Amino acid sequence: MPDVNENGKHVAHAGGVKETKAAPERLKKRIQRHYDVTSDQFLKSPTDTNEQAQLNQVIRLAESSGVSAGSRVLDVGCGIGGTARYLAREHGCKVTAMTNSRRQVEIARELTAAEVARMRSPSSSPPLAPGSTDFVQYPSSASSAGAGAVRVLDLDVEQMREHLGGALGETFDCIWISEVVFHLHARKLFFDSAFALLDPGGCLVIADIFRTAQDPSSSSKRTQKELASIRRNHLCPQLGTVEEYRQMAWEVGFRPRHEPIDITKNVAKTW
Predict the structure, then answer these.
(1) 139-181: per-residue pLDDT in tens?
(2) Quick one: pLDDT at residue 239?
(3) Among 168, 158, 173, 150, which Cα is nearest to 80's?
(4) Which one of 103, 154, 160, 165 is most buried, by most CB atoms within 10 A?
(5) Helix/strand/coil for 199
């Protein structure tokens, strides 16, 4: 369910059952292990149907965000870097991709370096080594949009403001986060950090998994069981609602650029 918001400069508090202070850290480690182990499964042919569906979502979000050549994009929870490479290759964006899964970082860097190497002429300089934290520059001929670039960082969401904004002094035109917020305990911290890292007029692009506005405690036992299964299998503390996301975003200063787009019918068959 994509939701695109802008700077003015955008959402749910985990809530739910009382937890110990160690619970968020345990969940974070489980998520890291999950993506370290499963990321190799995403190395599939571009003709795969599920990959095309993912690309369609990226295209829709890119259109909504208005990113263009030279836009500085922060891709939070970048996976193996498919979105970052697309934005650099097709739109000429300068993308900082980040994930807290070391295996995803390795794969993303390798795939990015390999893609750029294929696109370069034999006489051009080779791309950076896969382990580099510097930007890998796409050739100017890669897209009519201009030359883009990608770097991939091993960075946790909770440290992104301190590292990127503090240590490096960087800001962005767009922060992109797709199906990641539902993993987070510190959701309010994420929105606050995103607002701080965006330049005035910048936008936050979100696609996430939501529950309906109905209070889970008043739902049927079957629905409660299904929600519990989603929380367990998808490693999330609790699913939030669109309105909860809106409220958190509003409180830190974001104002909506577009109304949320509900794609439930499109994905219902796989849920």
Answers:
(1) 876 565 678 999 999 999 999 999 999 999 999 999 999 989 9
(2) 81
(3) 150
(4) 160
(5) strand
